[in-house]
Design brief:
- By secondary structure, the chain is mainly alpha-helical.
- The protein has one domain.
- The protein has ten helices and four strands.
- It has helices at residues 21-30, 32-52, 54-68, 115-122, 130-136, 149-158, 175-178, 188-203, 207-224, 240-249, and strands spanning 74-80, 86-92, 140-142, 171-173.
- The strands form two sheets. A two-stranded antiparallel sheet has the order 1-2. The chain has a two-stranded parallel sheet with strand order 3-4.
């Protein structure tokens, strides 16, 4: 992986630095109504999922996981969340039990991933237990994806002020995911691109953007049911205009 440090000052506000509580208070003040209503929306949405989806979908997935491989149904891992605080993130287990789950990212055709695990990952169904994290206040429905501790430190060493993305509560889905950056970050470019989209989201949070991301996530899940491979990162003409706009604004 490329190790060149990238100066990313263009991708975060000039008056921000990690731990700058004055900027954090100003950010919260400017987005106060949005943040309050978003939290209410998260609670209502997660509650509906618990009432309407969990009762029938959970037993099916639990049975499939148990029939496919030995081990626990759920997997929990320390992730970096809001303002850099760590929390236990919950998922359905998609790998055989191994000693490298917290240090080695999944790769394409990873032998650790079970048969049902591939399906759950491609369909994004392995993330459903994270609605528990939403109710606990650790996560939101929409926001930058939370990284495991090792990845967060590694990415921060590669991209200056990478922690700016932690200004938003981490999400079950996010802007970088619907732009094609799902799964493991396999190159320096993919790390930087994810950061750019996440930074853009943090600086431009609004309900319209959240709704658009949720709709695109739903479409992505439906499409993923018919394809085994995960979406290829981004060089799609659908996003060329948007990407050019982001590049021109320099996420500012």
């Amino acid at each position: 992986m490329q190790s060149t440090i990238v100066e990313s000052a263009a991708y975060y506000p000039e008056n921000w630095n990690k731990g700058n509580w004055k900027f954090i208070r100003e950010y919260w003040s400017a987005n106060y109504n949005y943040l309050i209503y978003k939290r209410l929306m998260d609670i209502v949405t997660a509650g509906l999922v618990f009432l309407l989806v969990f009762p029938w979908l959970f037993p099916i997935i639990i049975l499939l996981i148990k029939l496919d491989s030995r081990g626990p149904v759920f997997f929990r891992q320390k992730r970096v969340g809001f303002l850099g605080k760590t929390f236990w993130c919950y998922k359905f287990r998609t790998m055989y039990v191994n000693d490298y789950a917290d240090t080695r990212r999944a790769s394409q055709n990873d032998p650790r991933v079970t048969r049902i695990g591939w399906f759950l990952r491609n369909a994004c169904l392995d993330e459903i237990p994270q609605f528990i994290n939403v109710l606990l206040g650790h996560m939101s429905i929409v926001g930058p994806r939370p990284h495991m501790l090792k990845d967060s430190q590694e990415f921060a060493n590669l991209v200056t002020n990478y922690h700016f993305r932690n200004m938003a509560r981490p999400g079950i889905t996010g802007l970088s995911q619907v732009r094609g950056y799902r799964g493991p970050a396999t190159s320096f470019e993919s790390i930087l691109r994810r950061y750019q989209w996440d930074s853009y989201y943090v600086k431009n949070v609004n309900f319209t953007l959240d709704l658009k991301i949720m709709v695109e996530t739903g479409l992505l899940m439906v499409k993923s049911l018919f394809y085994r491979d995960q979406p290829i990162p981004m060089d799609s003409h659908v996003y060329k205009q948007e990407e050019s706009m982001v590049g021109a604004k320099k996420i500012a």
